[in-house]
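Work Package 3 (structural annotation) set out to generate three-dimensional models for the target panel prioritized at the project kickoff. During this period the team completed the workflow that converts sequence records into discrete structure tokens, so that structures can be stored uniformly alongside our sequence database. As a representative example, we reproduce one entry of 151 residues exactly as it appears in the project archive.
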Amino acid sequence: MAEDKLTEEKKKKRREEREVATKLRNLGTVAQAEVVNDVITRQVSKHLSGFSNFLRDQSVIGIGIGLVLGTQLKAVVDSITSGLVLPLTQLILPNQKSLVSQVWSVHVGHDASIAIAWGNIAYSLFEFVVVAFIIYAIFKFFQLDKLAKKK
């Protein structure tokens, strides 16, 4: 049943193509150019409107704006943590080393040792928490949850 419908659609499409080709042959060159130009214009318009619908339906613009703002937010958080948090941790941590340079060494056997950079891990987690908190605060402050579409 589905194959019959598919072959009928193909036959219909071929018949339409032959009709258009016959009509084009009977037209003059200027008229042929106008018909071809009209078909191309309609196809381009159809694809452009499809692309704009895709952008609108998939919220691609919003995602792009979010990426740009997120990148800038990350830069701000990096500068705050490197300019304020790391110097403060140097006061608290032993040997007045920064948090990023804190390492825990584990000796395995006679000649082998493993260095676990726990300070770098803690620093990354701290940055993540700060970014998440700032995004949450902005979301709640501007009441962006009320702007979401009701589905």
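The chain has two domains: 2-57, 75-146.
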